[in-house]
Amino acid sequence: MQIQKLILSLQEFWLKNGCLIGLPYDIEKGAGTMNPLTFFGALGPDAWRVAYAEPSRRPADGRYGDNPFRVYKHLQFQVLLKPSPADVQDLYLESLASLGIDLKNHDLRFEEDNWESPTLGSWGVGWQVVLDGMEISQFTYFQQMGGVDCKPVSAEITYGIERLCMFLGDTSNIFDTTYGLIGDSKGSVPISYGKLRHREELEMSHYSFNLADIPFHRSLFDFHEKEGTFLLNEHKHFISAYEQMLKMSHAFNVLDARGAVSVSERPGLIKRVRDLASGCAQAYLNHHFPPASS
Amino acid sequence: MSKDFLLEIHCEEIPAKFLAPLHLELQDKLIQLFEGKGLVGRGTCPRSPDWYSPRKIAVFLPGIHEIQPDTQSLEVGPSKSICLDSLGQPTDAGLRFADKWKSNFGEIVYEEVKGKKGDYAVLRRAVKGLPAVEVLSETLPALIASLSVPKAMRWGHSSFVFVRPIRNILCLLGTTVVPFEVDTVKSSSTTLGHRLSPGPIEVTQPSEYESKLANHHVIVSCIARRTLLQKDLTAAASSINGNLISDESLLRGVSEIVEYPSVILGQFSPEFLTLPQSILTCSLREHQKSFCIQNSDGKLLPYFLSIANRDLSQDHKARETITKGNEWVLNARLFDAKFFYNEDTKTSLESRRSRLEQLTFIRGAGTYLQKTERLSTLAGHFAPLFSVDPLEARLVAHLSKLDLTTQMVVEFPELQGKMGSDYLRNEGLPESVCKAIEEHYAPVSAEGSLPSTPLGSLLAVIDKLDTLVAAFAIGQIPTGSKDPLGLRRAGSGLVRILKNQNIPLSPVEAIHQSLNIFINQFTVKDIEKVEPALKVFWDERMAFALSQDGFEQQLLRSVMAAPWHDHLQLIMRCQALKRVIVRADFGQLIENAKRINNILVDQKIANPLMYDLLETPSEKKLLEKSHLIDGLMGNDQLDAFCLALAELAEPLEEFFKEVMVLDKDINIRKQRLNLLFKLRSQFDYIADFSKW
Questions:
Q1: Is the domain of A96 the same as that of A123?
Q2: Is A161 in the same domain as A84?
Q3: Which of A15, A248, B2, B500 is the most buried (most CB within 10 A)?
Q4: Which chain A residue is nearest to residue B365, measuring alpha carbons?
């Protein structure tokens, strides 16, 4: 199985099931949920369905490209269905079938795994989906986003692309998976995930653990907070402010990987990101669904 | 006629830990409802079988009446004088009362009603029992909505709150569907099977529910799944000449996450057998919910047993695929574990000390580095009490928390202590040190095993002592059901270790010492309240532990209310006292001891301590006996002491009959009071009887 084909199959499946096919958002983020298509999409009363692939950067997960399973940056495929349909689990199982996973030959479990993002002020309940012993997806009913109750509730499905691909292709090293083929009429050659990304993993791991300038990232964190708060408070701009929140969050993750965040300092920094995220959620709702004036 | 009743709530996968409590609550509430509505005799309803699986909670109750019994209702109206006018004719009010209950005025009788004066209008009406199906369709929706869900959720557009989305409801009384609706789901006579054989399945009567589900690959009885698992696990282990390492809590856990259990026997790469066994078993259990197999020498074999959620007895191809998948995942997990282990062992544990500074112990009570410093001081101080070398004790304390910084413990928190001891053993530290670090988190539960060595016991005790003191010092005192730091468990553990090792540690001294060390590092608010609060907490833990030994509450309360040094003394006093309280005159003695207490409330001891004016026979006898007791005060003579105490009963009774304590003669009065003070101090030596 090629990574690009896996993404295409999922896009095709969810397109057929009434989702917009979104694009990754061009700012570093730790999880696909942080794409505005999901963060804002889960808010408010209107129906919404979207699916997209999203690269997720987790600086502390970097392993210099030495570890066959863990990487600084991995791909998530993200689906948001609002309101959560009654047959959402069956839809998900159909999506697996579309990838060639015939449940007749496998073992599947939905195991309790509740999701929480303290930086986004968001949480939900749900499961990790375990296929033949491996966690392949995260399944969440959003209860709150940006500190606001989700009404109606959305269902979010997150597929771990590389894992799924390794599993389907029986590959034991992430860098040995095939991303895709290039070629012309004379033939084609496979391009491995390693060829595409190994050097990036090495450099970004070095950067996250050893080279990133700590005072610089601390000031980035502060500046983005200041900028975001200004945009939100002075102009009620929640999209540009949200981008500042994403940058804060990434600066925090770099500082964390760099070992520069003490345990006692951590909750305070997380709260500062969350405050901006919650502010954005509130401003979004005020703009699109202004409370009826009394 | 009575019928079988069946209610099944089918949800998306319910978290395992909620299944049994939810099933129990649903069952209790149903029985309560049936009894309340007269649909079953009180106390006659048998318990439901344990029918629950990840997607189902089902209660089966036999012997439910089809129709409620007829009853009579009693309606009380206005008083007779309001219903009838002076001529004995019906008034408007009287007629309205009859109308209200759709009765004729003539049916009203006048009689006395409890709690009211004079005669009142009363109507007795026969109330026809309703069909059970009707009663239930009205009451069941509210009953289901009332089930408690610790982590509740909403879904879709609904504001209905439950543990997971409800997708189907089956409800039958005999062959009849009990019709109702919960959050747009209508009850019916159909259920759903395993995802590979979903149905829908028509259930015509409750008694065929279990077998129909079994045909669709759901074993709905939890105990049946567990029994099957136990059997298959054992068989699979012996198929490779190994023995299953049994794990009751894992077995319980996996039987609650599958609808149909099948055992998968897989292999992992033997290279991982070089990892410490605890890492292997932990990784298998925690990450993959898998069981381990050992050979007859107790060595792990490179095999594991996982549980699949489906019937695999006929399907070899699927079994092969699933086994391969599980092996792939497990090897990946173990690769990660080995990576952590290798990273951890690249440097000595000691070289990680600075990282303890990054690790918060309790918010507001500093880091683990600070805790380690306190533990070292405490270890040196209390080492002699545990008969261990103070230098070794300090070393153990110094090293005790280092493994919290290792990747292995970050990944598997339950390996704390264990990893430290493994790593230090590799570094060549003495076995006694490694063992003490390994066992210092014990006991981990109320019945958990205790540290086996004196050094481990010392470390375990001071670790818990310091946690208690630090938490109380920053105001984190457990209240009611709130005990987020697990202080009660720590306190009980501490007391159990002291009892187990026979360590005469005085709570007062231990708390004082530990708090003094804590305030070297931190400023404590309201410090004067900390020690008394901790002493009360310690006493509660101690009282709990001793009540487990079979001492009665009033005995314990009285003995613990008198000043005591340590639990060994407490236990001896309780035992000695227990032996004499069976005496017939003991009750009298206690009454008189209480009387002495009352008399002495506002009195002071008078100097000089003279008794020469006491001349009545009873006070002379009392004095003589009391002098005798003076010679029996010592831990080794407790039985003789208690006996002598009991023998005070008779003269004391005579004394109170014969003399007036508060005599007119001030000097006699002083001496009599002094005699009572002397007696009380002797009582206090063993117990404060005012608490009896």
A1: yes
A2: yes
A3: A248
A4: A264
Judge: B329–A112 Cβ closer than 8 Å, yes or no: no
Domain stops at, among A155, A170, A196: A196
Minimum-distance CB partner of A132 among B12, B325, B359:
B325
Which residues of chain A lie closer than 8 angstroms to B335, CB-CB?
Answer: 67-69
Whether residue A107 and residue B322 make contact (CB cut-off 8 A), yes or no, is yes
Supply the range of the domain harboring residue A270. Answer: 212-288
The dihedral built from the CA positions of residue B140, B146, B150 and B154, taken in this order, carries a sign that is: positive
Q: Do A132 and B258 touch (CB under 8 A)?
A: no
Quote the minimal CA–CA distance from A187 to chain B in Å. 33
Residue B290: burial class (beta carbons within 10 Å; 0-12, 13-18, 19+): buried
CA distance A93 to A88: 9
Please report the number of interchain residue pairs, chain A to chain B, with beta-carbon separation below 8 angstroms.
Answer: 114
Residues contacting residue A64 through CB under 8 Å, at least 6 positions apart? A201, A202, A205, A206
CA distance B460 to chain A (A): 25
> Is residue A46 assigned to a domain?
yes
| Contacts B331 to A, Cβ<8 Å | 172
Please indicate if any CB of chain B lies within 8 Å of the CB of A148. Answer: no
* ipTM (interface predicted TM): 0.91
The C-alpha atoms of residue A277 and residue A248 are separated, in whole angstroms, by: 10
Kindly state whether residue A204 falls inside one of the protein's structural domains. Answer: no
| Count of domains observed in chain A | 2
Q: How far apart are CA B157 and CA B153, in angstroms?
A: 12
Q: What is the mean pLDDT of each run of 10 residues along chain B (692 residues)?
A: 94 94 95 92 91 96 92 86 86 88 86 84 88 94 91 90 95 95 94 92 95 95 96 95 93 95 95 89 89 93 96 91 91 84 90 85 87 96 96 96 89 87 94 96 90 96 96 89 86 94 94 95 90 94 89 89 90 89 82 87 80 84 87 81 86 86 85 88 87 82
